[in-house]
Amino acid sequence: MHTTTVLQVIALLLSQRKAAAVAAGDNEHHFLDLCALIALTQRPIPELPETQQATTDYQEIQKLNISLSGTDWRKQFDKTGTPPKRAAYKPSGATEDSLRKERRPYWINAEDEIETDKGPEKILRSAGADGATQADRQRLLALLQPIAEAAASTFTEIENLKQASKALTAAAIHKKIQTATYGEQATAAADLTAAVFKAANGNPTNRKELCGDTTSASAKARTLTAFLYCICAGEQSQNAGGFKACSNAQPANADAQAALTNVHTAIQGLINVCPEPGNDKVTPDDITKLIAAVAGKTTSKAQQAFYGTFAATDCGGLSGSGLCVYYKTTTKADSKAYHNIQWKKQLSDAANDLRDQQLATQRLQGLLLQLKSLKKQAYNLRPQLEIYKKLQVTAGKSGTTQEAQAKKGDDCKQHTKNATCTENNCKWKATTEEAGTCEAKAEEQKSQGTGEGASGTSATTGCTRHGTDKTACENDKTGDKQNCAWRKGKDDEPDKETEKCRNGCFLVNNKFALMTASFASLVAF
């Protein structure tokens, strides 16, 4: 009996217990969190890098390519018709050349700019190619091709990345933050009207529909400003709207619970007493941390969730009921609505966009620097041309000397008499008293050798001095120049099937042959 009495007393006390009323300042921490989120609309948003310079750099490379190209290739861009204009791309056969189709607009623009400059001289002068012979222009054009191809690839990637990043601009991200704060039809607190506010929040007809009522339904509030109103604005019927749940500085609320006719005025007054927004650019972490701060202060119990302070029954704005936003979480649909509040989703999307923007910015910056470097290389090819020409002259002199030496030996063989042989600075080698052969003198034979040991002399000089030492042979260099090489002989060398230490000049000649071949194979970019 005693136990039963105690339980009855406890039950009576619990049934009579009332939740504590909302006191002034109870929601200040919620207010500051919401103010920080609303302030995102006034803080600068990072922007993607400007890419206009990339277009300019690429176009300058195209102009140089056009300026160095032959007139036959450039004829395809001549203006025709009335009014005169350059023809767009047309397939020459049944198959479309997608690369030429893609590049033709840039070629046409290059021709237009060259025409504006009254010819290619300005571009050629910038590249150090003014006054260059036609042969030198072709060599420069050959040197330009790999640079131009790399530039085209880089520029295409820049353009594709720009296209893929349209939703990552500062304006697009800022719009998401504004919509989360004010709804689709407003960009600032000053744009709010009662009608605009209601349309952004499910068209509530009274405060209980907007903020939630435990006896009927969850809140319709979708925007940050709706949350600010529900959590901070006291009901007009209590103390003439002067109840200050969020800040001592907040103005009195003249909005009646049943009408929401002055809801926009109350919101504007609350935003005006928020702390000043900072000037630092918004980061994705800023947004996610602020969302977490608001979500972390949610109160949940008995299949109900509240933002702000709940006392009893509803979030109607009275200290005895609650200044809050209410969600029931009875069903899966209820819980989904609670976890996917519109402003939270839109701000989370904005944070994700900022992260993607950071990645796109890093890639774009790298591509822009790469294209800038390629443009610099394109306009600095003249030194490479001069080096090639000097090497070509050196190789020519070496070949001429060898040819002259070989010719001297052949000339001596033409003489069949001792007298004419010696008169021509050759050596007569008698086989009988009356017969013999005319040969080059020993010192000339030595000079005719390939460095492996001249005919009739011991192999102690030139590359032959290395004998069978392959390592010593291959290490015989003057600076970067290879003096000797371990190889088989060429067509004009003796014992050509045998691998041994031979003169390295043939390697140099081969390099010149390859260089010449590469210059001869020109394809217009």
Automatic annotation (TrEMBL):
Keyword hit for Cell membrane: yes
Record-linked Pfam families: Trypan_glycop_C (PF10659), VSG_B (PF13206)
Signal peptide bounds: 1-21
Ranges of biased composition (kind: Basic and acidic residues): 466-480, 488-499
Regions annotated as coiled coil: none
Superkingdom of the source species: Eukaryota
Biased composition (Low complexity): 455-464
Membrane topology: Lipid-anchor; GPI-anchor
GO biological process, one term: antigenic variation
Stretches assigned to the Trypanosome variant surface glycoprotein B-type N-terminal domain: 9-372
A Gene Ontology cellular-component term: plasma membrane
Annotated region (Disordered), positions in chain: 74-97, 442-499
Trypanosome variant surface glycoprotein C-terminal domain span: 412-523
Compartments (UniProt record): Cell membrane
Keyword annotations from UniProtKB, A to Z: Cell membrane, Glycoprotein, GPI-anchor, Lipoprotein, Membrane, Signal
InterPro entries per record: Trypano_VSG_B_N_dom, Variant_surf_glycoprt_trypan_C
Function: VSG forms a coat on the surface of the parasite. The trypanosome evades the immune response of the host by expressing a series of antigenically distinct VSGs from an estimated 1000 VSG genes.
Record protein name field: Variant surface glycoprotein (VSG, atypical), putative
Gene of this entry: Tb08.25E9.600
